[in-house]
Amino acid sequence: MAFGFGPVKKIDVQEYRRKLAPSERSNSLPNGLSGGRAWSPEPRADLQIFFVGFVSSWPIYAADFPDVALAPAFSGPSLRLPAACQYFDAMKSLTIALIIGCGAVCGSLARVAAAHAPRTTWNGIYTDAQAKRGQAVYEEQCLSCHSPDLKGADQAPPLVGPDFNADWNDLAISDLFERISTTMPADKPGTLKPEQVADVLAFVLSKGGFPGGDADLPAQADALKEIKFLSKQP
Fold this sequence. Notes:
Cytochrome Bc1 Complex, Chain D, domain 2; 4% strand; mainly alpha; 2 domains; two-stranded parallel sheet; 50% helix; two-stranded antiparallel sheet; elongated
């Protein structure tokens, strides 16, 4: 059945109700819809009117059906609505399809957003094995200044705790990587290899309560620019 795209007409239930021949009219619609009169034992036409009236009260507008499609549905003294019912069935199917389609699109967008969300210190950016290697480097190169518990001593700042987290919060991990690379250890700065810096940083993160993951923290500063230090779990 073809649908037109010109002006639309609202289905006038009362008009079609008046077209019914007396022999084809049921006594009434159900209580509440008919002023309390009895329900017809053969309510075929009234059911069709009730269906169209109920749906059109949303309101839903039926498109201009071509004459060839409209005539079989509404011609003659009797009221028969196959074309209108097909129209509403099509609208219902279209609505369901749109809902399913919107759900699929929203799900895809959510997955894309999650895939492109910035990584943070809470995403498991180092491995436990890497943190273990970093502990050995820390004990050899950093412990004398920053103390065994990483809380600092004298002029050496802490590497764990609220002050450390506040200093680096919302910055890229690459900034912390560069600081360690260029200034540590204090007596011979810049002598640590990039892999050693990454391992020490993994150890520091593990002591700070940040979770480990399945991949080592990269030893390239550029790769760390996409990872953000967050003191609190989002």
